[in-house]
Here is the input.
Amino acid sequence: MANSEPLDFAAVRDCTQLTVRALIDYYAAEHPDKVFAIFPDAASEITWGDLRKTSVQLSRYLAAKGVSPGARVGMLRANGQAALELFLGAMYGGYTIATFNPVAGESALRYVFEHSEVPIVFVDEANQALAEKIRKEQIPSLRIEIGVSREGLELPHIDDGSELVAPKADDDALLIYTSGTTGRPKGVIHSHASLLAGGANTAAAHHLTRNDRALCVLPLCHINGQVVTAIAPLLSGSSVVMPHRFRVSQFWDWIITNDCTWFSAVPTIISYLLGADDRAADPSIESLKQMRFGRSASAALPPAVHEAFVERFGIPLVETMGITETAAPILCNPLNPQGHRIGSPGRACGNDVRIAKESQAITQANTEGEIQVRGANLMMRYLKEPEKTKEAFTEDGWYRTGDLGRMDSDGYVFVTGRIKELIIKGGENIAPREIDDVLYQFPGILEAAAIGVPDSNYGEDVAACVVPSPGTVIDLDGLRAHCEQNLGRFKTPSAFHVMDELPKGPSGKIQRLKLVESLNKSSR
Here is the structure.
């Protein structure tokens, strides 16, 4: 772990022997007074030494409450100091941190509380009443903990002289639930090794050094926020700025005031930054000169949005791709803008990626198939789901992402859609992404998603759901003409639905299947 040199891809192999505790101990010993995290909403910060101290306190507190190392510890909190201390501190003590989404809704939370079998869950005030209701009505043995002051963990000092249990690299470290667009959410289990491999993929792809500082505006209940902007800084010995949530009006001020050098976001956030017209949302390019790059992940970034962002803010935007089961990044564009392929999330980073049909690799360039991945960053299993775990992998050990794509001769992957989201009109496959890209080129569109709807003639037809930019009225006749010109009549949506917002998962990814469900209900 050199002082300023970035990690290279070979470092991923070494992460298979590391743990979260080993990293915290290493950096806390080397530079205990260096800042690890800044929390602008509370005007507070923690050093590496603070992080280690709180992690030890949390470990002893849990043990004193009868929660043995190896058990799962629940977290239902918005981003902030307490959330970050819980996320890393639980893993430090050999516990499995189970992160729950505060906006998942009561039904989903009832399910994951019970399914995860957490004996204890740390909540914030906003979620305390709901957690207590679930405990009282469904899980009387569950312990609900607040355990925080205004911002950080506030735990009693316990020092019984006992040695803390040191976790091993292959021990369970994280339980995180998928968004569950259909059926019940699946509980993904990651080990210390797979989480750190995901962090190493991020650090290597973005050449992170100890001088870097990330802005984290994605939730810590999502794999992107966890691995990309928490584990990667942990691994690279750098730092992170973590507000409670994304706010357009403060985004650039957080970056400028705290000397951030990069950020990770989703296309929805990129669109909101572009659509904002107040002064705070339009910083000068000179004030952003310390920014090395911005990062977009979790969903396809429309080329029109990508190019407009770079032109307006002067920051290279790196498109990537990752999923929960792979501890975030599997594909990434290079930092050098000359190497970017607009419309592609890039090439394999730290793992192997192939295009395949079932277990048969497709070797011909630019031929569509399923995107599959293999590497040290893959999940351990789905909790209590051995059959689904088996189904998620091919016979030769590659994880099936469920995403369709093609790979060019230089190894860049182009995502063409989800297998379950393909629109099949008159027997022809239409990728929603192709429609999306054209919709985003039309003036005044903030968000867009193409979906398949039932049709008596074609079986399915194309519909489009669009959200206008603030203060804008979309010219639907002009939009239809724009689509016909760029897509042809066959692929042009038969209907355009103007909405206030589109349903999204915790990462900000638009959930097309929920759009289909809501439109089907409204048409009955």
User: Anything to note?
Assistant: DSSP finds 15 helices and 26 strands in the chain. The CA atoms of residues 285 and 313 lie 6 Å apart. The first helix runs from residue 11 to 14.
